[in-house]
Each structure stands twice: as C-alpha cells, then as structure tokens.
Amino acid sequence: MKAQEGAMVAAKNSSLGAAKVAKEDEFYTQLGDIERELWHYRDHFKGKTVYLNCDDPRVSNFFHYFSHNFEALGLKRLIATCYKSQDIDLFSENGTEEAVWLEYEGDKNGSGVPDRAEIVVQPLKGDGDFRSAEAIELLKQADIVITNPPFSLFRDYLNQLLEYGKEFVVVGSQNAITYKEIFPHIMTGNVWLGHNNGDMSFMVPAHYKARESRFWVDESGQQWRSLGNACWFTNLDISKRHEWQTLYRTYTPDAYPTYDNYDAIEVGKIADIPMDYDGVMGVPPGFLAKHNPEQFEIVGTTESNDPTNPFRTRIYSSAECRAAYLARFGKKGVYDLNASGVINGEKKYKRVLIRSKKGTP
Question: What is the pTM of this model?
C-alpha cells in the first residue's frame, strides 16, 4: 500500500503530505498480486519479523496476507506503520488522522484467524513517515520489509533499506531500474527483480483524476488504475534468478548495428540477444526481470547522469545534435544525443548494457 504523500523536496525531514497535491502517489496493491509474488519467498519467512512500513494496516492487503498466513509462514512477529491519514474517508474505513503502528504475534485463542484482541494497536508520536525516528526504530527490529512504497520517494526508500541492511520485497516502477541512485545496486547484485513484473492493477482514491487509458471505475464506484511497468524489487534469493535464458539468434553486423558513440551493439528485443557475441550489448531494461548473474554480467546503463554510463565518453556538439534532430524530424529543435546510445545519429531508448559470461549451465 502506498503511504499518503506527494512530490518530494530534498530535505529528508520534509513532510510526506506537504506536496501531496502535486503527485498522485497512493496505489493500493491487490491481495491476488501479493499472493502470487510472495508465494515464491515463503521459505524466507520462517522465524522472521516482517515489517510493513508504508501500510495502513486497517486497510492493507499486505497486513491481511501476513496476519492470515502467520502460522503457515512460520512468522515470529508482524509489525506495520502508516503515514497518518490525510483523507479519513479514503475507503470509508479510516476513522482517524492519527498515525499508528500495529503488532501481531499470531493466533492466541485458537480461532485460526487474527482477532482484534490479538492485534496490538499503538499511536505514534509523529506522522508515521518511514524516515521518522519512530519508524526507523521499528525498522531496526525487522528482518524483512514488505510493502508498496511511494513511487516518488522510491530512491530514498530503497536506499534506506540498504543502509540498514534489511531484506525486502517491495513494489516499484520499472522506470526506477535506471535511476542513478538505484542502478548501481542492481549492477553490483545487491538488488534484483522479483517474479511477477509487468501489468498490475491498483485501487486509487476517489479524488484522483480520471485518465483516458489504464483507468476505470468498478460497479461499486471504486476507482482503479493499472500500471504496465510495475516491478517487484528484492534482495531475497529466488529460483527465477538462476534460470538460464535459451538464446537462438546468431550475431551479424547488419542485424546488430554498433552504436556511434560506444563499442556495443544494439539489441532491440530481449528475445534477440545473440548467443555468439562476446562484447557489450544494449538491451531493454525489461531484461533485468530475466537476469541470471551466472549467465550475463551487467556493465552499465544509458541513464544520462548515471556514473556507470560509458556513453558519456563522447559528447556531441550542439551542431551535431541540431543536425541529427533536423534529419529525423525535419523541424527546428534541440535533440540531445549526449549520454545515450546513438545509431546513425538517432538516439535510442534507455538501455541496460550487458556482456555474456563464458560457459553453459
């Protein structure tokens, strides 16, 4: 579940609600999506404390999943915090603006389900921001963190988990893969993608604006949006990470052109990765959902301000940029070719740079 918040200012102690109006950042994860993904991590949960630090447990499907599967997963403890409600009628369930934290340690009365008497609810002094001192103290007690954090704060959120050495499974946007704050962790093998990446549907508050696409209202009046590029980010080992991709294509210079500004070839589709090329290849970011670190080395990315980006070694002059833009679009403008893969003067979309490792499974 997303904490209620908006666009982020630079200071860490800024309020999540201060700029909420600037971004629509509340996306509530469906129970089915949670079940499909977390099934693959079930062996990791035994004897562990799970922390949901961006979830209002009163409406959270993450809290529902872990509290109802507490014994089956062999959990030790479940804790959850949320940012204080700014829309107390969000789903007609939140009845207070007070930030709270919940604790559940399993079925005590033999009912087989979590009862209200078994869930300890305590108020927080602050607003429940995941960066607050109260939330960090709870974070220190956790083994694994699971949630759907605010997309606009994903950089801060993920780096906090890594700073405190926590295991995690969190929802994010595929766009985050190439963030300069995130990609180095992916490249070094500290973070990778989970199982079910791609299209996911989320409940959103009623005050969100309607969209022309990927938006609908169900028969109950609940608004929904789907994201075609949703991802699960994790550092828990899963079997998918050790599956080898079967490659069918063979390299030819005509089929795989070399970038104008870097010694690497362009591979437009993951399925077209050649099986016999030993150099660097630029592939779509979706490749990371299938990445086996035993099969491929990650070399860098084409994000313009990423320190891993080798394309910055050639800087095009403004005249070259203008000529390439005119040649492509036939009109005046500024077409920035710097720091990205370029073929015949045409800038390519973001790419992850990989190199095949020797050997077969």
Answer: 0.80
